[in-house]
Every structure is written in structure tokens, then in C-alpha cells.
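Bit of a strange request maybe. I'm writing a small parser for C-alpha cell strings and I need a real example to test against, not something I typed by hand. Could someone generate the C-alpha cells for this chain?
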Amino acid sequence: MIVCTRAGFFAGAMRFGGQVRTLTSLKAKVKRSYNQQEAQQDVVDLSKDEPKVIASLVQYLYSGEYNGEFTDVKPVKPLTASELVVTHTEITNRTHQRNYTYAFPHTCPASCQATKVLCPHHICNVNCKGNCRAFICDKCCSPRGSPAQLLNHSKMYAIADKYDVTGLKQLASKNFEFACTYLWNEDAFPVAIDHIFSATVPGDIGMRSIVIQTISKNMALVQKPAIQALITTYGDLAIGVLLKRMG
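Reply from user aminoacidic:
Good idea to test on real output. This should exercise your parser:
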């Protein structure tokens, strides 16, 4: 039995005296049972929600995170440079008077004598004694996800809003914003925008503000027919981009 205290919808249902809410992930439904009473159950039907979205919601309720690819499959081979997104948090290492290279994955040469200043979290001959083999810093690197994750993050934001899972809304926004930094020019971006502006109310600016910021930073997007159609459909998107550009 798992009490879903991360979700306001489920947590609120637990406040009734003598009632306990349990979440059955395999059947994607929430059941309410009564303590010290005759068998009686009410069922909250989640069948209208997309199964993969509900599965990811359950994953978040258990672990505090979710996979934006809507899959549990993890890469089995070492990632290459083209499959990584590297976040540069600092530029220069003052101690060694060198710029961080962020050259991942990194393998030290057979006779690695010089100190390799890879990132703030790893310096060869200090952290690895020159024995790096396809090293990837978990703090600086993330797998480059597929364009499909843009829509998936939007769906997670919407389901979090529906069931009052504040933490998940924040996480979905963060994941979507990061994905936009390298997927903004993909055909999947307009699809995600359409979902965001149709699934949220104008006052809910969490994901909308990220869309507006991304377009305003990459104005070449407005040359795309798909983006032009969205600007025509959603007036608040057009106004938001205009105001952002005006400063």
C-alpha cells in the first residue's frame, strides 16, 4: 500500500476519517478501502488518461523523477559525444590556470602525464590517476533525448496539474526548458507548443513562458509555417513573444 502524499488529489482523499487511499500502478487506478468496515470500494477511473503518462506519474510518485522518453530502457553502450548534452557551469580552473575542456567521453592516453582539466568535478591525475576510460561526468552530462520528449514533458505537466502534483509540474517545466535548449528547431517543438497552449489556461505560465522565451531567443522559428499557424491560433503566444522581444 502506497500513500501518495506527493499528489494533492490523492492526499486530499486520505483526509476522510478511517479511510485509506492506495495506488495500484498495474491497473492504473486508485482504490479507497475502509478500515474495520465491510468490504466496500470506490474507484477513481483513470482509463481516459494515457497509460504511458499515468505510468510516468506513478514513477514520479515513487521516485521523485520520471523518464522523459516514456521508457525504462537505458543505453547499454557507452555514449558518444554526439549523444550527450554537456552543461558548462564554469569556464576556468583558477588553480591550474586552464579552461575546462568538457571533452566527454574522455579516455586518458596510455601515458597520461599532463593534468587534464575536464570539468569542475573531474581532473585527471587528481581524480582518476590517469586511468579514465570513456569517462562521462554525471553532473555535467545528460543523454541527448529524442525530440518526442518535448511533447512528453508537456503531457507530464498537464497530468501534474490535473492531479495537483506541484513537484511534478516543476520538474516537467525544468526538463522541458532543458530539452528546448537543443531541440527547439525540431518539428516536434510546434507539436509540443500546441499541446501546451491547448492544455493549460492562460494564467498558468509555467510551460508557456518557456515556449515564449525559446521562440524569442530563436526568431528564425517564426519563418516556419507550423509556428506561424500557432501564433495565429494562440494570440497570447504572439503577444508574449512580442513583449519578450521588446524587453
